[in-house]
């Protein structure tokens, strides 16, 4: 406890870090305040019980409840995330985007600009769909045509405002702005979910003992998730000695950290998108509700969980294969005079790295699938659905990843000012906090 207070004191002594933390908290406070502003032309008292489930419930969680409140920030950062994913996939498949990725800072600015334009287009489409399907007609107190046009513009402006807030946090605050905004939206649901769970335990079955067991289980799941996010397989790389003039370079051993979960949360996002197709079909075609497709409308069913887990494992291998390039890693090592001890440079090195990635990706994919289906398992054990979402899935992975990244940045400021880090031993490493061993500084 003494070390904790000492660390907090050291953080407050660094003027730049203190200003960045205060700025970040102020921006997040502004975001939470604006998220409660209802769309113009809507009477909030007439919304009634507008809670969402399924994919809409997931979007509502990411938006911190703005989606169900019909807020001006109802769409949140999801259009920006969708645009970022599209641009990232284009960077893998389209040569012109690959060229921009290799152009350094200028290429990054071009990709960011493309992402912004794509965000505007996606937001406009989603705003139209949101106004048509998610705003109750009885809550609209002005002309419907006027409301439709006005709400579309306001929702688009709201998403751009959230994107601007995120960029300001990234530039002048601490941590990744967009990720922090998502994290705050998820955490905002925790007090309500915890209150519901406590009430159900004390009013219903279980009592205090069951509640304590649930909290301990949640702590264990979080620790397990951190282990998966942080897990790496270090491949040793030896660099040959070089004499340039009177100076010696190289002759040191470094490591390539191959992550156990190199795909992050992307496999879960892709798998969830496919799993919502049966529910969408049964919604459009009521005759299909009496078929086997109805099993996939319940995320706690065995068929849903098994299919979901299989898709996550498949997408993990797919996404890892297209994002981690063993051939390029081998070429970068060879250009910088590096080699893996006992492995010939070139094709043999590429094959060795590919084999290691294949071996560590399978357990990583299985563990990721387990984390994804934990909420459905928690519901089966009698935990309320709202609280069960914190036992796994995309929300838990985002929370863990964002917290680790932010702590890594804070620790970097402390170490640069010659203060102790946040841990007694070792260092906090975020999702991109481990330096690559290759000379190109590629992040694995």
From TrEMBL:
Signal peptide feature range: none
Pfam families: SecY
PROSITE patterns named in the record: SECY_1, SECY_2
Location of this chain's protein in the cell: Cell inner membrane; Membrane
SUPFAM superfamilies: Preprotein translocase SecY subunit
Membrane-protein topology: Multi-pass membrane protein
InterPro entries xref list: SecY, SecY/SEC61-alpha, SecY_CS, SecY_dom_sf
GO cellular component, one term: plasma membrane
Gene Ontology biological process terms, A to Z: intracellular protein transmembrane transport; protein targeting; protein transport by the Sec complex
UniProt keyword annotations, A-Z: Cell inner membrane, Cell membrane, Membrane, Protein transport, Translocation, Transmembrane, Transmembrane helix, Transport
Main location: membrane
TM segment ranges: 21-39, 70-94, 114-133, 145-165, 177-194, 206-229, 260-281, 301-324, 360-383, 389-407
Family to which the UniProt record says this protein belongs: Belongs to the SecY/SEC61-alpha family.
HAMAP family assigned: SecY
Quaternary organization: Component of the Sec protein translocase complex. Heterotrimer consisting of SecY, SecE and SecG subunits. The heterotrimers can form oligomers, although 1 heterotrimer is thought to be able to translocate proteins. Interacts with the ribosome. Interacts with SecDF, and other proteins may be involved. Interacts with SecA.
Function: The central subunit of the protein translocation channel SecYEG. Consists of two halves formed by TMs 1-5 and 6-10. These two domains form a lateral gate at the front which open onto the bilayer between TMs 2 and 7, and are clamped together by SecE at the back. The channel is closed by both a pore ring composed of hydrophobic SecY resides and a short helix (helix 2A) on the extracellular side of the membrane which forms a plug. The plug probably moves laterally to allow the channel to open. The ring and the pore may move independently.
UniProt-recorded name of the protein: Protein translocase subunit SecY
Organism for this UniProt entry: Pedobacter heparinus (strain ATCC 13125 / DSM 2366 / CIP 104194 / JCM 7457 / NBRC 12017 / NCIMB 9290 / NRRL B-14731 / HIM 762-3)
Organism classification: Bacteria, Pseudomonadati, Bacteroidota, Sphingobacteriia, Sphingobacteriales
């Amino acid at each position: 406890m003494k070390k904790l207070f000492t660390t907090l004191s050291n953080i407050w002594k660094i003027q730049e870090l203190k200003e960045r933390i205060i700025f970040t908290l102020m921006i997040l406070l502004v975001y939470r305040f604006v998220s409660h502003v209802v769309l113009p032309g809507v009477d909030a008292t007439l919304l009634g019980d507008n809670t969402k489930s399924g994919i809409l419930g997931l979007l509502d969680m990411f938006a911190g409840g703005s989606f169900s409140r019909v807020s001006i920030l109802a769409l949140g950062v999801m259009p920006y995330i969708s645009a970022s994913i599209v641009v990232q996939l284009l960077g893998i498949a389209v040569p012109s985007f690959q060229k921009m990725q290799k152009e350094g800072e200028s290429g990054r600015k071009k990709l960011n600009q493309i992402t912004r334009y794509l965000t505007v287009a996606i937001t406009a489409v989603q705003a139209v769909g949101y106004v048509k399907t998610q705003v109750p007609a009885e809550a609209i107190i002005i002309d419907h045509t006027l409301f439709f046009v006005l709400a579309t513009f306001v929702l688009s402006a709201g998403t751009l405002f959230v994107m601007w807030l995120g960029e300001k946090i990234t530039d002048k605050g601490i941590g990744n702005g967009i990720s922090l905004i998502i994290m705050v939206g998820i955490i905002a649901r925790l007090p309500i979910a915890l209150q519901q769970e406590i009430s159900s335990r004390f009013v219903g079955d279980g009592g205090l003992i069951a509640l304590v067991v649930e909290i301990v289980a949640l702590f264990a799941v979080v620790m397990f998730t951190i282990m998966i996010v942080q897990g790496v397989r270090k491949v040793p790389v030896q660099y040959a000695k070089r004499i340039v003039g009177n100076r010696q370079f190289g002759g040191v051993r470094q490591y390539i950290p191959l992550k156990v979960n190199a795909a992050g949360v992307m496999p879960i996002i892709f798998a969830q998108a496919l799993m919502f197709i049966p529910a969408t079909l049964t919604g459009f075609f009521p005759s299909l509700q009496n078929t086997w497709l109805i099993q996939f409308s319940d995320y706690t069913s065995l068929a849903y969980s098994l299919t979901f887990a299989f898709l996550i494992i498949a997408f993990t291998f797919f996404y890892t294969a297209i994002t981690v390039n063993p051939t390029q890693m081998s070429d970068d090592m060879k250009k910088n005079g590096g080699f893996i001890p006992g492995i010939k440079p070139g094709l043999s090195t590429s094959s060795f790295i590919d084999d290691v990635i294949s071996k560590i990706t399978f357990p990583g994919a299985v563990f990721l699938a387990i984390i994804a289906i934990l909420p459905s398992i928690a519901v089966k054990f009698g935990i309320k659905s709202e609280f069960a979402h914190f036992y796994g899935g995309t929300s838990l992975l985002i929370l863990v990843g964002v917290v680790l990244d932010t702590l890594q940045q804070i620790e970097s400021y402390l170490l640069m000012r010659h203060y102790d880090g946040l841990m007694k031993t070792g260092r906090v490493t975020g999702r991109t906090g481990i330096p690559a061993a290759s000379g190109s500084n590629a992040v694995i």
